[in-house]
Design brief:
Layout (H helix, E strand, L loop, with lengths): L16 H11 L2 H8 L6 H11 L1 E4 L13 E3 L2 E3 L3 E3 L12 H12 L3 E3 L7 H5 L5 E5 L5 H14 L3 E5 L9 H6 L28 H9 L6 H10 L4 E6 L2 H9 L4 E4 L13 H12 L4 E5 L5 H9 L4 E4 L1 H32 L5 H4 L3 E4 L2 E2 L2
Parallel strand pairs: 4-11, 5-6, 6-7, 7-8, 8-9, 9-10, 10-11
Antiparallel strand pairs: 1-12, 2-3, 12-13
Helix pairs in contact: 1-13, 4-13, 10-11, 12-13
Family: Belongs to the FMN-dependent alpha-hydroxy acid dehydrogenase family.
Cofactor: FMN
Protein name: Alpha-hydroxy acid oxidase
């Protein structure tokens, strides 16, 4: 698939992620762009994710030595250049022929983890061969044996963590895809789920083929006993992605989970679900240091990462933005996205009076209309 002009000025490159988003939208066919950009229902949660970040303001500190700002930290015990991981997004080959392999190379170059999805269009073995830190995102399948086979495959490939997505018993009603009758092209498939034509390729007016495929494949019976079984089955760190309720967060700690991702699935599941930004402080308080807490949904710049840190997160996942970079400029486009985030975060740290991530977590925040919880 042809790449677009990455940014407003090809010589200068994109100045921020909005430039990258525009370039990606111009590069992709409308139905593919809708698949990438869209949310569920009326897209209330999709819009709220961004609005929630915009409503948070940081109280900067002054008279601190910021001559050597360092955004480096650790995620899941591994050093990272800055507190960002590339989150799981399905079917990267929809937007670029090299797919997840190109995104993983860019993440390695940026010094951050890459999360390969169950619905990846490139095998996990090819992704880990890149050599960076790779996490494996896991959907619980109707066939538990196949699910545990995927776990073993991820372990054998060298993945460093399992990210169990817990908010998708089935795919939310994504009306853009329904209206487009969206289906995968023949050369893009979920390579971890077997060969052959699947429901994801059978287009039909007024229906999403991708949603039909997940309805056939994903378990609707994922429970805490499944989490216990996964904990007994693997020694890898387990991350639960899709937690918004503090009681669920407390229970996750009891079940030996290593980290949580506070997330409403980028506004693509329950429309009207609480935003991650709004849920984060209560989740952080509930786990009380018992596990790491990450956030995703709506992150569009380094100041958003700073705000997430100030609200208690260990770091953030970014999903759509790297995919925009991949669509607009391939591997180099993803690198630009991650370098923009790193530069903006370093700038935000210094201007907030923070020499590093630890200081950022002590910043006070205010929400428009009142203090943050």
């Amino acid at each position: 698939m042809a790449s677009g002009d990455l940014g407003r000025d090809a010589a200068a490159g994109p100045l921020d992620l909005d430039d990258v988003e525009r370039a990606a939208a111009a590069a992709l066919p409308p139905e593919v762009w809708d698949f990438v950009a869209g949310g569920s229902g009326r897209e209330l949660s999709l819009a709220a994710n961004r609005a929630a970040f915009d409503a948070v303001f940081v109280r900067p500190r002054v008279l601190n030595d910021v001559s050597a700002c360092d955004p480096g930290t650790t995620l899941l015990g591994r050093p990272v250049r800055f507190p960002v991981a590339v989150g799981p997004v399905a079917y990267h080959r929809l937007v670029h022929a090299e797919g997840e392999a190109a995104t993983a190379r860019a993440a390695k170059a940026a010094g951050v983890p890459f999360t390969v999805a169950t619905l990846s269009s490139v095998p996990v073995e090819e992704v880990t061969a890149v050599g960076g830190a790779v996490w494996f995102q896991l959907y619980w399948l109707r066939d538990t044996g196949r699910t545990l086979d995927l776990v073993r495959r991820a372990e054998d490939a060298g993945c460093e963590a399992l990210v169990l997505t817990v908010d998708v018993p089935w795919m939310g009603r994504r009306l853009r895809d329904v209206r487009n009758g969206f289906a995968l092209p023949a050369d893009v498939r979920a390579v971890h789920l077997g060969a052959g034509t699947s429901a994801a390729h059978r287009g039909d007016d007024g229906a999403s083929a991708v949603a039909a495929h997940t309805a056939e494949t994903f378990s609707r019976s994922l429970t805490w006993s499944s989490v216990r079984r996964l904990r007994e089955h693997t020694r890898l760190p387990i991350v639960l992605k899709g937690v918004l309720d503090p009681e669920d967060a407390r229970r996750a700690v009891e079940y030996g989970v290593d980290a949580l991702v506070v997330s409403n699935h980028g506004g693509r599941q329950l429309d009207g679900a609480l935003t991650a930004v709004d849920a984060l402080p209560d989740v952080v308080a509930a786990v009380d240091g018992g596990c790491e807490v990450l956030l995703d949904g709506g992150v569009r710049g380094g100041t958003d990462v700073l705000k997430a840190l100030a609200l208690g997160a260990s770091g953030v996942l970014v999903g759509r933005a790297p995919l925009w970079g991949l669509a607009a400029g391939g591997e180099d486009g993803v690198r630009q996205v991650l370098e923009i985030l790193a530069a903006e975060l370093t700038d935000a740290l210094g201007l907030a009076g923070c020499a590093g991530v630890a200081e950022a977590r002590r910043l006070a925040t205010l929400r428009r209309g009142g203090p943050s919880p």
